[in-house]
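User: Sequence in, structure out. Go.
Assistant: Echoing your sequence, followed by the structure tokens.
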Amino acid sequence: MSKTKPAPRAKPRRTARAGKAGIRKINLALQGGGAHGAFTWGVIDRLLDEPDIELEGISGTSAGAVNAVVLANGLMEAGRIGGQAALEDFWRRSSRGGSVWSPVRPLPHGVIPGMEFLSAATFAALDTMTRTFSPYEFNPFDINPLHDLLTESVDFDALREHCHTKLFLSATNVRSGRVRVFETREVSADVVMASACLPFLFKAVEIDGEFYWDGGYVGNPSLFPFFYNCESRDVMIVHINPMERNDVPKTAPDILNRINEISFNSSLIDEMRAINFVTRLIEQDWLKDEYKNRLRHILVHSVRADEALLDLPVSSKYDVRWSFLTELRDRGRLEADRWLEANRDALGERSTVDLESQYLGLPGPRQKDGSQTRDASALAESGSD
């Protein structure tokens, strides 16, 4: 693996807008991606260094849902320092547990000659097995160590009763094929397990008589809960699944991985398309006067892992070595640091994402720093038709 210089831990600093009156509330939207969720850990860790940035809502799917509940639990118990500590503790526990139960056991390249090929072969064997036998056959007792990790790391009873962070965790309803978004008062270990339930590895998770799979198929992550439940207009998406790849995949695992990336980004693109459409209605003055005050602009931002994780094979999503997880964390911190350096002043003011060019494949106006020349999105306020 290529080494990336980690972002230095910036000391918390107060800008001219800091203090209670200068707090900038944002909403986080966290994608899933297995062990690559440690990249998201790094992004969050860096954001928590900023005393004038406050998290109002968090929408998460799969590994994003795991990061969301662990973070919210830490914030509830000890503020932003508690959030940072809770995430580090969880990922360290994951690494220790993964040394026992991870189905793919990669070692650092060069430690043992040819080990990278053995790792790839192990992953290929796992992939073949899970497409030949269902989890109802090879895992009849539905063993999933994530459940124990969650219950050890998160006080779900306290989270439902006392958490001030608004949580929105997405899962896929197996029967209807629609997204189910669980809010803070509904969150439990089973809900997180449902959001992270890979259908080829684990049985569907039953909650109140319904069965659920990984939420990435229909909401990775879901954005619409922010528009009806949160005051902040700023939505920051932390991408794990690359939107674009330069090379055409040639091997079977790479082809399947790219299909999954496209599938897991499709619901997000659909939401972006709807947001962009409403924006055009507003900007081109197509709305009747009586409807204009029922719309508000949503400011969209993103921290993307496209380049940061470009060198990693699909099998690395199962790699839970502590050295690897902390490297992903440092890559996430670095990307968040770059985003803050370029776009901090945009929070509360404008979008830093060009929806048309970055999500919809359409030409769009871009500034030198990559931000839009106009507000990127709008959506009906809570209560609108």
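User: And one key feature?
Assistant: Residues 1-20, 109-115, 366-385 have pLDDT under 50 and may be disordered.
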